């Protein structure tokens, strides 16, 4: 198994835990794997895409439901925990259910 596959699997587990902790009645938050990216969706709407590029994660958000753009708060990082910590701050104006 390649390093990138292992990194995707580890990151997916962490994002799934993030989603599970924020499930609320009537709201579905989940993470799905698409090619070399992880997509965070709420109620079927794509919010965040994390694309593994070597040892770095490129972070994108679905701007105006039109296209993926680099996330201005954290466009690139090397640790998925940084992304989760940034998401906790709700810079996408998504108020996660706790």
Topology diagram in text:
Elements (H helix, E strand, L loop, with lengths): L2 H18 L8 E6 L2 E6 L2 E9 L2 E8 L3 E4 L5 E2 L2 H9 L10
Antiparallel strand pairs: 1-2, 2-3, 3-4, 4-5, 4-6
Structural write-up:
The chain has 98 residues and is an alpha+beta fold. The chain has one domain. The chain contains two helices and six strands, in the order H-E-E-E-E-E-E-H. It has helices at 3-20, 80-88; strands at residues 29-34, 37-42, 45-53, 56-63, 67-70, 76-77. Strands 1, 2, 3, 4, 5 and 6 form a six-stranded antiparallel sheet that branches. Strand 1 (29-34) and strand 2 (37-42) form a beta hairpin. It is globular and about 35 Å long. The model has no long low-confidence stretch (mean pLDDT 85).
Q: Tell me roughly what share of residues is in helical segments.
A: 25-40%
Into which percentage range does the β-strand content fall? 35-45%
SSE string, helix = H, strand = E? HEEEEEEH
The global form is globular
Main pleated-sheet profile: 6 strands, antiparallel
Return the domain count: 1
Low-confidence blocks of residues: none
Number of helices: 2
Report the strand count. 6
Rounded to an integer, what's the Rg over CA atoms? 13 Å
How far apart lie the N and C ends? 35 Å
Structural class: alpha+beta
Mean pLDDT: 85
Structural key phrases:
98 residues, alpha+beta, 6-stranded antiparallel sheet, 2 helices, 6 strands, 36% strand, globular
